[in-house]
Amino acid sequence: MVELKTDSLMTQPVISVSNIKYEKTIKEEKEHISPTASCSTHGPSQTPLLDRELQTERAQDIIGLLAKALNNVTDGTKCTKCTVDEVSALLTDHVKSLRLAKQNGEWSKEERKTLKAEVKLLFKPVKKGVTSLWKANS
């Protein structure tokens, strides 16, 4: 089981997930270069725009809060219902801010199309796996 460590997430630039560590450098932060720009398994990133968006401060904050909420369930500090409510509120607020950013023109039409294509590329196998799981269980 992968354990997410969030104690140092908000204070230090090191994110630790199991044995994987990523240290942000000043250059990467300024240029918005993805830490997964060159994956040893897949080669160059197939989702560079999405990678860049996930490295923004706004996305890093929401990821940290989600990890902290999930750790609260595993640690037993909060019940599952409270955590689901908290995660739901976080995701709803994040989607609202993304829609607002889209409406305010933070992304060009080309960037929006690219982001949509990258998200579809990532979630197509997930959807296929979940669909086959549900069909197998019925």
Give a verbal description of the structure.
It is a single chain. 62% of the residues lie in helices and 10% in strands. The protein is built from five helices and five strands, in the order E-E-E-H-E-E-H-H-H-H. The strands form two sheets. The protein has a three-stranded antiparallel sheet with strand order 1-2-3, with helices on one face. A two-stranded antiparallel ribbon has the order 4-5. Helix 3 packs antiparallel against helix 4 (80-103). The two termini are 27 Å apart.
Can you describe this structure in just a few lines?
The chain has 138 residues and is mainly α.
Please give a handful of descriptors for the protein shown:
mainly alpha; two-stranded antiparallel sheet; three-stranded antiparallel sheet; 138 residues
Topology:
Layout (H helix, E strand, L loop, with lengths): L3 E2 L8 E4 L2 E4 L2 H6 L6 E2 L3 E2 L3 H7 L2 H19 L4 H24 L5 H29 L1
Antiparallel strand pairs: 1-2, 2-3, 4-5
Number of domains: 1
Strand order of the largest sheet: 1-2-3
N- to C-terminal separation? Answer: 27 Å
**Which geometry do the CA atoms define?**
globular
Biggest sheet, open or closed, and with what strands and sense? 3 strands, antiparallel
Percentage of residues in strands: 5-15%
Q: What Rg, in angstroms, do the CA atoms define?
A: 17 Å
Strand-pairing-aware structural class: mainly alpha
- Strand element count: 5
Which consecutive residue ranges, at least 5 long each, have pLDDT under 50? 8-34
Give the topology string: H per helix, E per strand. EEEHEEHHHH
Mean pLDDT: 77
The helix content, as a percent range, equals 55-70%
Q: How many helix segments?
A: 5
